[in-house]
Amino acid sequence: MESEGSTGIFSKWRRYNLIEIPVFLDLCASGMTETVFSDLILYQTCRITLNETLTDTCNLLHNNSSSQAARDLEQLIQPRASYILLSKSLIEGILPAIFSLFLGPWSDRYGRKPILIAAFTGPFIRFVMLSILSVWNLNPWIYLIASIPRALLGGVCGLMLSIFCYISDITNDGNRAWRLACVENSLAAGLVVGTFLGPFIFQRFGYTTLFIAATFTSGLTLFNILFLIPESVKRQEPEHKWKNPFDVSLVKKLFQTATRKRPGLDRSTLWSCILILSLYVIAISGEINTGFLFANARLGWNVVQYSEVSAICTVLAIAGVSLGMKIFRRIGFSELSVALVGTISIFSGSMITAFTFKPWHMYLAGGCGVFSALLTPPIRSILSKSVPPADVGKVFSLTTSVESTLPLATNSLYTFLYAHYMPPYYPSPVYLLSGFIFLCILLLIVVLDRKNARTINPSVYTSLVEDVIN
């Protein structure tokens, strides 16, 4: 719901300036680089593991990745590379997860624009540093230095927190799920464009040029945020300067919002939504960390082949969420029913991937997962509707913090499973674990739907601030 002070601003700006544009550009830059960055870590790990002068051997990873010699080489270097990629996830996850507990409540009071700027500045600095570091052949651990500034500026956790809070500010209960779906479509579309462009640039110009292109794209994103996206929250104390965002009292208020009993607060629904989103992030994060390694080892795919399939699957997901949100709601599906369809779809895709042994199986998995993106928008919408605008930042802070913290531990499990049971082990335990997680989500949604069906007269949620005043 729009804040009181932002109505006039948005009446002039909303039609021409959308948060989806910088979201698309940011994810385009990430899509261009993430798979290629994994390839860079693999290549440099190979170079260090064998010998710095044996570059011809390591070039097999690019020139003849399906050969037996390349697969033998991957068996040697992939376990080591997977731990480097895991360390990258830890760097970019721990601090942002902690910061988000403070930034959401702080932004409720002082506005969304500061955390938006910080969240979009982090990727820009990272790409600038990678553009410089990739000029030389370095120890693969050195490239993780570029992840530090992004972590200090909020990381992915801060990015998603700022976006979800911003969307909640400028929407109402009727159109929030659709706008959240549009944001997820922007995320997916950016990844599609990026995953097509990234390997194309890499094959023709190399790592450094690719990271320079990502820097330019990220710079356009930051310009958009700085000058074209208006503030969505009226500051409660406009005459005062910003106060310290890392005030422990902010975290105390955050937990009071989610745990203090008051009329209309259905804590079981609130925490069920948080659990569902957390489980989803655990599975998706684990699959992303090992996805390229799995396709490379199982099918002998190089970075271009994997990127092409990933892009096709993402296009299908965009079409699925765009059509699904309209069609299923029009025929009378509740938000939880739509989320259930998404869960069944993504469960099917993971199980097919677990049993993959031919290239067309990956396409089949993408087809079955066409409605996978329908899971999260309805759940986030239900979550945001459980609180008034004054408490949206607090709840999304708690949600993004939990979503970011859990994968830090569970990614280690995924890495362990992959490193010890990598192909030719069949079926893949990594995707079997994801299937089990999605099955748990399915059961949670069914239980939540049955519980809400028995709720006859839900009372109106009372904001923590209003509750204290009364």
Automatic annotation (TrEMBL):
GO terms for cellular component: membrane. Keywords: Membrane, Transmembrane, Transmembrane helix. It is a multi-pass membrane protein. The chain crosses the membrane at residues 81-103, 115-136, 142-168, 180-202, 208-229, 270-294, 306-324, 336-357, 429-448. It is found in: Membrane. Its main location: membrane. One of its GO terms (molecular function) is transmembrane transporter activity. PANTHER family: GH23453P-RELATED, ZGC:174356. This is Proton-coupled folate transporter. It comes from Fopius arisanus. The gene is slc46a1_0.
